[in-house]
Specification:
Layout: H1 2-25, H2 28-32, E1 38-42, E2 45-46, E3 50-53, E4 56-58, H3 60-72, E5 76-80, H4 86-91, E6 97-98, H5 106-109, E7 113-114, E8 119-121, E9 123-128, H6 138-142, E10 147-151, H7 155-163, E11 168-172, H8 175-183, E12 189-193, H9 194-201, E13 209-211, E14 219-221, E15 224-225, H10 230-246, H11 248-256, H12 279-282
Parallel strand pairs: 1-5, 1-6, 10-11, 10-12
Antiparallel strand pairs: 2-3, 3-4, 6-15, 7-15, 8-14, 9-12, 9-13
Length: about 300
């Protein structure tokens, strides 16, 4: 009798239990997130894109990461590391995605994939206000002999090495430290992404600093994803499209980057390196209103 009862119970419960197990197995989050959580690699030293505020990870990328994890229905784990450790950590499987204001470049795309870009970007110089008149054109920037601070391994670093022909490049691990040295007169200029430049210029502790109103590159911010993980790339691309369609991306960008323009419709093509200024553009006066943001 007992045996008959348990057999009957099994057959009654099987139709209920079977769909549940199938649902778990088919969950896309389990397919492309081996740790069962979204491990986001960040270098939180680039306000307002990604930084630490009141002992909490904050900024545009932080809000996007939280929204993405919620959309996937998985826990979020920020993994803090140095900038030059992000791509090695991604390729070795220590993290699932890089959401740290990274520019999609052709060189980086050899090692990793990028999501659909969501932000038009550019590099901008920061100088002492007393020196602003030294840079009336982009040509004056290119031929400066100034000591220029950059964050190592970023597109700003690449730009200075390739285009500031006579400048003395001064590499830093933290762009805020570079700005502090600029304020103290230890270097003459900082080149970084435009939102960070504006943020630093508005910092009370960085009094006397001002942006040079010239955007020197045309770049796209995107999220880095391992080439072996097409499922996560598809999920990220779908999430960006959803945010764009709903208008939520506009709201988030305007909150953190009030001067920046969102990349609304971007062609699906291979990411390209930062675009250097042309000879014709170099001779043009600066346009203070030409601001599109920035990335590393």
């Amino acid at each position: 009798m007992a045996k008959y009862f348990y057999c009957l119970l099994f057959f009654l419960l099987w139709p209920v239990a079977a769909p549940l197990s199938a649902q778990v197995a088919d969950s896309p989050a389990l397919d492309f997130l081996p740790a069962g959580e979204l491990r986001v690699g960040i270098n939180p030293e680039q306000p307002p894109v990604i930084f630490v505020q009141d002992k909490r990870i904050a900024g545009l990328e932080a809000d996007l990461a939280r929204a993405f994890a919620m959309d996937l229905g998985v826990p979020l784990n920020f993994v803090v590391m140095d900038w030059d450790e992000l791509i090695p950590a991604l390729t070795s499987g220590k993290i699932d995605i890089i959401m740290s204001g990274m520019t999609a470049t052709e060189v980086r795309s050899v090692r990793i994939n990028f999501s659909t870009p969501y932000l038009v970007t550019g590099q901008m110089p920061l100088v002492r206000a007393s020196d602003l008149s030294r840079y009336p054109t982009t040509l004056a920037l290119k031929y400066t002999q100034a000591r220029v601070g950059v964050e190592k391994g970023t597109t700003g670093d690449f730009l200075v090495r390739e285009n500031f022909l006579y400048a003395e490049r001064v590499p830093y691990d933290n762009i805020s430290v570079a700005a502090a040295d600029l304020a103290k007169g230890q270097i003459d200029m900082v080149v970084a992404d435009a939102p960070t430049v504006w943020w630093l210029a508005a910092d009370d502790s960085m009094k006397g600093l001002t942006p040079v109103g010239a955007v020197l590159t045309n770049e796209y911010i995107a999220w880095g994803i391992a080439k072996r993980n097409p499922g996560l790339k598809h999920a990220a691309d779908s999430f960006v499209a959803k945010l764009q369609a709903s208008g939520d991306l506009d709201v988030m960008v305007k909150h953190w980057l009030p001067y920046v323009a969102r990349a609304t419709t971007l062609p699906q093509r291979r990411p390209t390196p930062p675009t250097p200024v042309t000879e014709e553009e170099e001779a043009k006066p600066r346009n203070p209103d030409h601001f599109q943001g920035g990335a590393r």
